[in-house]
UniProtKB/TrEMBL annotation:
Designated name of the protein: DUF4973 domain-containing protein
Boundaries of every DUF4973 domain copy: 25-155
Domain BT-3044-like C-terminal, residue spans: 169-309
UniProt keyword annotation of Signal present: yes
Signal sequence bounds: 1-20
Protein species of origin: Bacteroides xylanisolvens SD CC 1b
Keywords: Signal
Entries under Pfam families matching the protein: BT_3044-like_C (PF14274), DUF4973 (PF16343)
Length: 328
């Protein structure tokens, strides 16, 4: 008799338990926080983004916004985005203190357009896209440019920005690139005092975009964080005929070209990874002189720079977007 009572009771309890579980699965387990998909590089305090340089043209960068949670929103959610200059100021002080020449500069409105500071996350979805249109012609990369964004509070309470600062903010360090910019191996480039036998080398140097066909290096071994680094820009223009034109914007360094270099590009597919292409830019046999006019005020130090440099890019040919295909 007892068994007849226990079994129906057990069945009823199982039904109630399963119903409770099913209801729990449909309920939101977390919070519908909104954040940027822009992971910060904590060593720099910003997020590097690479934007293809187009002369007098516009390039659209798509920045995702993500709504967290275990369920999708039941209605469209309009998220308000704002410029966040205050956070950029805090980052500058935290990372550089009194070295104001190294501060990240806020990208001015002449270099970008935001047609709408609102992003729609559709009902039943967890992501929306902020389109940022960059116009980078004429930008000077002696400075480091950052577009600081934040997710603003909802005026209607329809969403909540993520409580973690590095989730609800996107400090986008904009790095334009062309076919020749990037990190070059410089182990075969020699720098020495003029008319002296001792030579110095370094492993690598960065080439920054000037325009579609030009890059600049800092002269010789001038440090990329040198206070007066702006004086020491050496522009390399890679011409279609394989020659390279060198010039220096600042006449104070007494730049003198000794030997005209040439350049070439080689491509080959990876031996193990069939989707990976290796593209190498080589600038060969250049030689120039310049004066360091700032290390010892009033006493120029003359240097000779000569050699060959090269840069390799690894490109995933399966990815159509060039900025995503390159392994930075």
């Amino acid at each position: 008799m007892k068994e007849r009572i226990y079994y129906p009771l057990l069945a009823v309890l199982m039904v109630l338990f399963c119903a409770a579980c099913n209801e729990e699965w449909t309920d939101e387990q977390y919070e519908h926080y909104v954040s940027f998909k822009a992971p910060m590089n904590y060593a720099k305090g910003v997020t590097d983004i690479y934007v293809k340089y187009k002369p007098n043209g516009m390039v659209t960068y798509q920045l995702p916004l993500i709504m967290s949670g275990s369920t999708m929103a039941g209605s469209d959610t309009e998220v308000q985005v704002a410029i966040d200059s205050d956070t950029l100021k805090s980052i500058n002080w935290e990372y550089f203190h009194n070295r104001k020449d190294l501060y990240y500069r806020e990208l001015t409105s002449g270099y970008y357009e935001l047609n709408d500071m609102k992003v729609m996350i559709p009902a039943g979805d967890c992501m929306g896209i902020l389109d940022i249109n960059f116009k980078l012609s004429g930008i000077d990369l002696v400075d480091k440019w950052v577009l600081p964004l934040t997710i603003a509070e909802s005026p209607t309470g329809s969403y909540e920005p993520h409580p973690r600062k590095n989730y609800k903010k996107a400090l986008l360090r904009v790095i334009p690139f062309n076919d020749y910019s990037g990190t070059y191996s410089t182990t075969t480039m020699q720098v020495g005092f003029k008319d002296a036998g001792n030579k110095m080398t370094t492993n690598e140097r960065t080439a920054f975009v000037v325009d579609e066909h030009s890059i600049f290096f800092y002269a010789g071994l001038i440090n990329e964080e040198e206070l007066e680094r702006r004086k020491y820009k050496i522009i390399f223009t890679l011409n279609a005929d394989g020659t390279v034109t060198l010039s220096a914007p600042d006449p104070d360094i007494h730049f003198k070209l000794i030997k005209n270099p040439t350049w070439k590009v080689t491509e080959k597919m990876d031996a193990s990874l069939p989707y990976l292409k290796h593209k190498t830019i080589t600038i060969e046999n250049f030689k120039y002189e310049f004066d360091d006019v700032t290390s010892v005020p009033g006493t120029p130090i003359s240097y000779t720079v000569e050699g060959t440099v090269n840069m390799e890019r690894k490109i995933n040919i399966q990815i159509p977007d060039e900025d995503q295909a390159i392994e930075w």
